[in-house]
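Lab notebook page, bench 4
Experiment: in silico fold of construct C2
Operator: M.H.
Input chain length: 340 residues
Purpose: comparison with the prior construct
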Amino acid sequence: MTPSSKLIGTVAVGATVALALAGCAGSGGGEASEGGGEAPLETIDVNFGYIPDFNGTSLLAIAEDQGIWEEHGLNVTTSSFTNGPLQIQALGTGDLDFGYIGPGAMWLPASGQAKVVAINTLGQADRVVAQPGIDSVEELAGKTVAVPEGTSGDMILTLALEDAGMTKEDVNLVPMEPAAIVAALSSGQVDGAGFWYPALATVKQQVPDLVELADNTDFEDRVAFPTAFVAGNEVVDEDPEKAERVLAALRDAIEFRYDNMEETIQLTADFLAIDAAQVEADAGNVQVLSLDEIDTWTEDGTIDTWLSGMNDYFVGAGKLTDPTDPSTFYTGDLFLAAGQ
């Protein structure tokens, strides 16, 4: 059962742990100075990756516009990526401290390559699509199907094929980067794809009759599609102050987003330098979670249940050898402590 949450798609217009320092306020206030005031926090540099869509960008846009990074003594440099696996690689090399991933990349932290430090939203943007004239997943048999490997597009294609009694071996699977899939679908070079919005909106400008064969809601009784923020293992293990401050800042941004949907859409559009209507359409495929929901579901084990279900999927899909206990890669205790 999918927990109830606030659907951003109903809006019309519409990228920490304990207290940052002993004696600091959860909102990022500095230590008391000898004169009785608060000394400013020493600034910490942070490299943060994101994907340029509503899920991957909205919190970073809020934190930048609302001065949340500065409030927590953070100097954040953001870098755009096309997918989550590339960010996990950058975390491993130390080029990033934090990043954003969709559900399809969750097997990477589950395999020990990063830590999930904050749950973000529940994604509803993934689709299995096909060229006009292909009206069922079964009709993809023997046809050329593109997918960005290790992403939520890969995940939803696998689930849809399973429901149809098929596997990836029943189609001519072609791994592609997202930009290449847009071009291939638009030009008819591939018959179908496991892909997502908002990129599919661009495809539909060229192929308005593109057929949607499956979406996230078809599988919500078996698996959730959480998006999340991740950190390098060394950041969590060796730089707790950086993790503390970033988690506290993300909590502030999560709260702002839930209470200010229309403004968040505009801030995201400004951050990405795109039209707000495009962000609004993208946001319509997102299930936004309140801070209270994330805290409650972290405490009562709901999020662990989501992650365990995903791990079972990843084992079946060959991404993981054995199921992994979510407590080994989801630092929910640190996220909760950041709000105390």
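Observations: Confidence is low (pLDDT under 50) at residues 1-34. The two ends are 30 Å apart (CA to CA).
Next step: discuss at group meeting.
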